[in-house]
Specification:
The protein starts with a helix and ends with a strand. Helix 1 (3-16) runs antiparallel to helix 2 (19-29), helix 10 packs antiparallel against helix 12 (371-385) and helix 16 (476-485) runs antiparallel to helix 17 (491-508). Mean pLDDT is 90; it is low at 1-39. It is α+β, with helices and mostly antiparallel strands and 546 residues long. The longest helix is centred in the last third of the chain and has 18 residues, at 491-508. The chain contains 17 helices and 19 strands. A hairpin with a 3-residue loop joins strand 8 and strand 9. Strands 11, 12, 13, 16 and 17 form a five-stranded antiparallel beta sheet that branches. 29% of the residues lie in helices and 21% in strands.
Amino acid sequence: MTNLKLGRMFKGLFVSYPYPILCFLVFNCFSCKNNEGNNNLNQVFRYNEHKNIGSLDPAFAKDNADIWAINQLFNGLVQMDENLNVKPCIAKSWTVSKNALTYSFLIRDDVFFHKHQLFGRDSTRSVNALDFKYSFNRLLDKEIASSGRWVLNKVESFKVDNDSIFTIKLKQPFPAFLGLLTMKYCSVVPKEIVTHYGSNFRANPIGTGPFKFKRWEENIKLVFRRNNNYFETDSQGKTLPYLEAIAITFLPDKQSEFLQFVQGNLDLLNSLDASYQDDILSRKGELRAKYRANINMIRGPYLNTEYLAFYMASKTSEMQSKLIRQAVNYGFDRQKMMTYLRNGIGIPANGGFIPKGLPGFSASIGYTYNPKKSKALIKQYKAETGNDSPEITITTTSNYLNFCEYIQRELQKTGLIVNVDVIPAATLKSAKANGKLDLFRASWVADYPDAQNYLSLYYSKNFAPNGPNYTHFKSDIFDALYSKSFSKTNTTSRETLYTTLDSLVMQEAPIVPLYYDEVVRFTGKNVHNLGINPINMLNLKGVTKK
């Protein structure tokens, strides 16, 4: 079947059939034979996004669902490999001044935007430095109200020297700056297309990525097609990507998603849900025998720390007491919690707030299970305060109720009264930002792969709601060392300083680290080269299906 015929057939699917038939036909129309008899010429990679997608505009690439889709369509100056190393992308190389303030990027001359009639006769054009100037100015535009505006907070100015040279000057040295530029917010977009569509660019994206936008029926199906003009190649010089298309569905129910995957209608199942985790995994976190013939499991560190947070500005005696906060940290077995509540997926957080897999992590600065120590601290608190019935309330969402109930049962053995309050996610988000909760469950996924991002949660100038310091932790020593970390350009020295800062936080115990998450992906046996990375980015340009 020719691409032209396939396109006509594909277009008709979205206007002629109800959802179940549409799904079946879209999934299967790519597996037909072409006129020369080559099987699976038009391969499609299928996955489900149960949270839906809000926008395909990189200026609003805030949620993981949006980021995954946008990553297939857009590129930036640089990109991150699977080991968190910054690599060239549209910028083939760059230089950094001796004072670490000026970054000059050399733009490739073989990168083209996806075809669109607004580009004129050739239906496309190459990317140049002016496109990055426009894209960055757009990110800063208050009228656009991009959720990624903060990414350029450290930038003093940027300029175009010529079509090939784009220069960025920082206000102060910032060693993690290149990592920030790998975020999808910093993708290049074409001015003429964005101007034409305005806010509707969210549903009419034109980028430079390995796949190009084809069609989007919101809440039903999103499809990308292969960009035959993509600039990257594999190690043998073959043009990427290998796949013909990507099809994304939006089943909201995770159990239904799991069943679709098991039946072979999806190529990827991302993460683990309580509704099916016992069915697919053993207590040791191993794939059960009945699935091994048809499914592969990939797992690795994920830059996400799950934790409980104390509001240090609370007027209650329990929140003000380091004895109580340390007692909670000592009072439950994290390893047992992971085995029985997560089937072994995740790493017990016996270190600090910086997760395992990120430079600066230390396994020796946190708290291990010590019920005797926990009881002794509670006893000491009672003696010093005269409060014989210390009481705390953990606020959480329903998704993490089982964790909080487990912690509740364990802590009550120490003499501490523990309540658990379940509220909607949106309510919790607002309440924690405005200091309305004494103790709440939270998580922090890295915005960029540098420990400084995690430590920013304890810098006093970042008090919520104007920053991410939800605990309102304050330490003059911490603030001074944190500010010093910006001028540390030596990698080893910076990592040592990060560990020291993390240790300072853990000594005061404004948080209770629960576990460092892991990326878990399940794929069909016919999916190859999917890979995995600590920021849980979905990269499909090198994936094959055989």
